[in-house]
Design a protein that fits this description.
The complex is a heterodimer of chains A (189) and B (389). Chain A contains 6 helices and 7 strands, in the order ββαβααβαβαββα. Chain A has 189 residues and is an alpha/beta fold. Chain A has one domain: TPP-binding domain (Rossmann fold), CATH 3.40.50.1220. Chain A is globular. The termini of chain A are far apart. By secondary structure, chain B is α/β, with parallel strands linked by helices. Chain B is built from 15 helices and 16 strands. Chain B has a 7-stranded mixed beta sheet, sandwiched between helices. Chain B has a 5-stranded mixed beta sheet with strand order 11-13-12-15-16, sandwiched between helices. In chain B, helix 4 links the parallel strand 3 and strand 4. At the A-B interface, helix 5 of A face helix 10 of B.
């Protein structure tokens, strides 16, 4: 019997991990978020994300091209907020500079084409992507889920990533700061 | 050469797809399916259309060319052949434009390589297909066999029953294709001649409105932009035999195309009122059809009612990709017999239905017509009576 309810959980899951959408997991509508395949409120997702990052032994924050290269109003403030979040949980910054098929320094950056290599070589147990186009986020997340036991988080500019274990959509500085404040509060005990 | 006759185009008021499809007042017209296609393109705020003629598509792209001359379309030309059309329209879409083209039967097959490329690069291209026979043996008559060849290209596929559907599905196609979480090509299919060359009542919104401009910056992939970092490098994963992109990565890219089609379901529900329409859902016999086979099935049901046979229902399949598995499973829950009339020899819709439901021995293999044959309602009735005995 085929499993009825699919949950998006840390792997290693399969030789080729399925696309969550093909297993019936749909991204949330505006105002909601997603955790492990279930639609939840944004506050619930923020609490889960903060807890995972605060408890992580070796977290990584991976800013993508929408933070690194974009020149729209508000991007630099968003990037600063992500950096503060990374500092709050002591995360490495491993940028996804672009999506090209090139050799990368896996101790310094991450590629959507083989993200599992960076995760495994740096022993990352929780990683957070921000500013990554949604196609490339899902593309990378399945490879991480297939080949590693890393907990994946995505802060999506427009859509949430149903292939992440936790994801917020329509991300803005307030939502990023809410995660950061929660991490700081958890770290204080 | 880009259009300099932009007065009419710019005089149209941009509106949301919701206003265009759901709330704008409509007036009655009596037009052909080809004209309905042109009426949709006229309101779609299309940046570029590219044409290559083939029966029965030719009239629609001729009328689209007229729209260019009138200033409704930014650019238009006739390409060398269908492959050239589909490759060039892909380039125009990669460049961030909203595009339109159309083809038929052998033209579809000639351009075949480009359809999965459109999907693989996540471009929201809308293409109308006026279905006809291919060389099985040669026929220009209505057939839907070309749809079978396109089922696994990654495209979203809608099948119009009539000219009204053709108009509505093309405009809805843009709204659905351009959703950031979807961003896939949409093929809008209709049965050639039956729909393209016959007149019927079509309710149209005013032609002084058009869809809002397409904004490629909302794409789930970077717009193709040679001017800024990271330039063309963004598309290098297409070169999946690179040492730095594994086959697993290529597979994950492929999965994302299919996942995007799954994410289209809620938008199809919103803009098209569902993936299927059901009449008489509690019936013991259900006819499942798409395209003009739906109309023939309606006529069969009407004729059977005249005979006192009232327990026959109808499922009209509007979306072929994504396929409405759950909706069909639910709508056939009470049926003991399922009939799938089709305009093709292969029976692709029948296969899709059989793969979607429990107890698929309920699905009768036909009736099917092809090679130019029409589908009299009597053969649908005959099929039902044969299997009920």
């Amino acid at each position: 019997m085929v499993q009825e309810t699919y949950r998006v959980l840390p792997g290693p899951e399969a030789y080729l991990a399925p696309a969550a959408a093909m297993m019936g997991v749909m991204p949330p509508d505006s105002g909601s978020a997603i955790v492990e395949g279930s639609v939840v409120s944004e506050d619930e997702a923020i609490a889960v994300i903060a807890r995972k990052l605060a408890d992580a032994k070796n977290p990584a924050v991976c800013p993508g091209p929408l933070l690194i290269w974009q020149w729209d109003d508000g991007v630099s403030a968003k990037a600063a907020a992500v950096r503060e979040l990374a500092e709050a949980c002591g995360a490495k910054i491993l940028p996804m500079i672009d999506y090209s098929a090139r050799r990368i320094r896996t101790d310094m950056e991450i590629s959507p084409n083989h993200p599992n290599v960076t995760i495994l070589q740096n022993d990352i147990d929780v990683c957070l992507f921000a500013g990554v186009h949604s196609h490339y986020a899902n593309y990378a997340l399945r490879l991480i889920r297939a080949r590693t036991d890393c907990y994946t988080i995505v802060l999506g500019d427009y859509s949430a990533s149903e292939d992440a274990m936790a994801s917020l959509r329509d991300i803005n500085v307030d939502k990023i700061n809410a995660i950061t404040e929660k991490i700081k509060s958890l770290k204080r005990g | 050469m880009s259009n300099t006759n932009t007065d009419i185009h710019t005089a149209q008021k941009p509106v949301s797809a919701d206003e265009m499809l759901h709330s704008a007042a409509r007036s009655r017209t009596f037009i052909t399916g080809s004209e309905a296609v042109a009426e949709a393109v006229k309101r779609a705020n299309v940046d570029m259309a590219i044409a290559y003629p083939i029966t029965p598509q030719s009239e629609s792209m001729h009328l689209t060319g007229d729209l260019y001359a009138q200033g409704y379309i930014g650019d238009y030309y006739r390409a060398e052949n269908e492959f050239a059309v589909m490759a060039a329209i892909h380039g125009a879409s990669l460049g961030g434009g909203r595009v339109f083209t159309a083809t038929s039967g052998p033209g579809t097959l000639r351009a075949m390589e480009m359809f999965p490329v459109w999907a693989g690069s996540r471009q929201p291209i809308v293409c109308a297909f006026m279905c006809r026979g291919v060389a099985l043996p040669p026929s220009i008559q209505p057939e839907t066999i070309e749809m079978a060849f396109l089922l696994d290209t990654g495209m979203i596929m809608f099948h119009a029953e009539n000219a009204q559907d053709y108009f509505d599905f093309i405009l809805a196609g843009y709204a659905i294709a351009e959703q950031p979480e979807v961003h896939l090509p949409v093929g809008v299919f209709a049965d050639g001649f039956f729909v393209t060359h016959t007149r019927e009542v079509v309710m149209l919104p005013p032609d002084d409105i058009k869809l809002n401009v397409y904004d490629p910056t909302f794409a789930p992939i970077p717009p193709f932009d040679m001017e800024h970092v990271p330039m063309r490098m963004v598309r290098d994963p297409l070169l999946n035999k690179s040492n730095f992109v594994s086959y697993a990565a290529s597979a994950s890219w492929h999965q994302e195309v299919l996942a995007a089609a799954e994410r289209a379901r809620k938008h199809i529900n919103h803009y098209m009122g569902g993936l299927i329409e059901v009449e008489n859902p509690d019936a013991d016999v259900m006819i499942i059809a798409s395209g003009t086979a739906v109309s023939q099935s309606r006529e069969a049901i009407r004729a059977m009612k005249d005979e006192g046979i009232n327990d026959v229902g109808l499922i009209k399949v509007k979306s072929v990709r994504p396929f409405p598995e759950k909706e069909i499973e639910q709508a056939t829950a009470k049926a003991s017999l399922i009939i799938v009339p089709e305009f093709n020899v292969g029976g692709w819709l029948s296969r899709e239905v059989k793969a979607s439901i429990d107890n698929n021995k309920r699905v009768a293999p036909g009736p099917r017509v092809f090679g130019g044959a029409s589908m009299p309602s009597e053969i649908i009735i005959g099929e039902i009576k044969k299997y009920r005995q």
